[in-house]
């Protein structure tokens, strides 16, 4: 079968018309790579990213003390430059000029004394421990940059209008305590109520009821072994609702106790025991006793206008203490 041969001019014209495909393919490849990077950044754990950000900021922040770097070659002992000239150099320095390096021991100190246990790991453990309650809507676990909050419905913990924890509360708090004992993060126990007014001898308003319920959970946590120094109580009453109080379902959602865990850790304060004072001599003890007796002595002071004052204080300027008359 005869096939007509294509001319060179037609081949060149076809090549010119398809040349745009190369640039288009490169553009699509770059665009695909961009979306892959954005997707990977979006899926990064926020808590891990925040911890990395805090660590980097602690590394490169200037300190007030010298000698914070590792002494040796290519290390600047003082990372507090006095001017841009000192920071960037005069151009005459060699490879051993100033650089910014961090001491690894400082990073370990930051992690162990300021930041507590990672909230992401605790969120997974708490979700696993309270899975049944979460699925039934009686509990909710949320995480943001600074707090991990565990919301517990008040009906699960207390009776109606009461702040006395029931057996269900003991079981739930016991499960949480097993996780919280492994951490040193600060705790905030927050109480919330609905807008239905309460006026009893024990709870004059929803303020007292919300605080009493939060305090009941704090005492339960303390009895189970949580350090009281880590905890604090917050009462919001009816003034920080989670849902609309106009419906029964909304009021039920507003009656809750929230256990909030901070990303920061509690640091135990070491109290130095004062040294025992040296025992006083007999003369010093006698002098102190005489001074104390003198201060407690009842005096009759004669005032300038002729009156008298009965007091234990010594006479003031212008006043006179009559002499003591001795018996004959």
From TrEMBL:
First-listed, main subcellular location of the protein, grouped into a coarse class: membrane
Transmembrane segments: 21-42
Keyword Ligase: no
CDD domains noted in UniProt: OmpA_C-like
Annotated OmpA-like domain residues: 145-265
InterPro entries recorded: Bact_OuterMem_StrucFunc (IPR050330), MotB-like_N_dom (IPR025713), OmpA-like (IPR006665), OmpA-like_sf (IPR036737)
Positions of the UniProt region annotated as Disordered: 303-328
Localization terms from the record: Cell membrane
Membrane topology: Single-pass membrane protein
UniProt entry tagged with the keyword Transmembrane: yes
Record keywords, A-Z: Cell membrane, Membrane, Transmembrane, Transmembrane helix
Entries under Pfam families matching the protein: MotB_plug, OmpA
Bias-annotated ranges (Acidic residues): 317-328
Record family assignment: Belongs to the MotB family.
Protein's name according to its UniProt entry: Chemotaxis protein MotB
Organism for this UniProt entry: Rheinheimera soli
């Amino acid at each position: 079968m005869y096939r007509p041969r294509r001319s060179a001019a037609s081949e060149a014209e076809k090549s010119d018309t398809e040349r745009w495909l190369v640039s288009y393919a490169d553009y699509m490849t770059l665009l695909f790579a961009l979306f892959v990077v954005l997707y990977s950044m979006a899926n990064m754990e926020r808590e891990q990213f925040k911890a990395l950000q805090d660590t980097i900021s602690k590394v490169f922040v200037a300190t007030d003390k010298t000698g914070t770097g590792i002494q040796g070659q290519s290390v600047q002992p003082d990372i507090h430059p006095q001017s841009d000239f000192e920071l960037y150099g005069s151009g005459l320095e060699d490879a051993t000029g100033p650089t910014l390096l961090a001491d690894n021991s400082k990073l370990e100190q930051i992690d162990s004394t300021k930041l507590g246990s990672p909230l992401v790991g605790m969120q997974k453990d708490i979700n696993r421990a309270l899975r049944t309650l979460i699925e039934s809507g009686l509990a909710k676990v949320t995480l943001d940059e600074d707090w991990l909050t565990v919301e517990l419905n008040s009906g699960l913990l207390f009776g109606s209008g009461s702040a006395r924890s029931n057996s269900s509360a003991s079981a739930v708090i016991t499960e949480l305590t097993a996780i919280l004992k492994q951490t040193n993060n600060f705790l905030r126990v927050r109480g919330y109520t609905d807008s239905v007014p309460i006026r009893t001898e024990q709870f004059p308003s929803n303020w007292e009821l919300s605080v009493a319920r939060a305090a009941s959970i704090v005492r339960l946590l303390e009895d189970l072994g949580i350090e009281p120094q880590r905890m604090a109580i917050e009462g919001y009453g009816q003034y920080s609702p989670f849902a609309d109080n106009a419906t029964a379902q909304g009021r039920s959602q507003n009656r809750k106790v929230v256990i909030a865990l901070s990303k920061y850790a509690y640091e135990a304060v070491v109290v130095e025991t004062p040294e025992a004072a040296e025992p006083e001599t007999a003369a010093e003890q006698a002098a102190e006793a005489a001074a104390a007796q003198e201060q407690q002595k009842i005096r009759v002071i004669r005032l300038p206008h002729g009156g008298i004052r009965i007091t234990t204080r010594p006479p003031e300027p212008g006043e006179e203490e009559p002499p003591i008359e001795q018996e004959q």
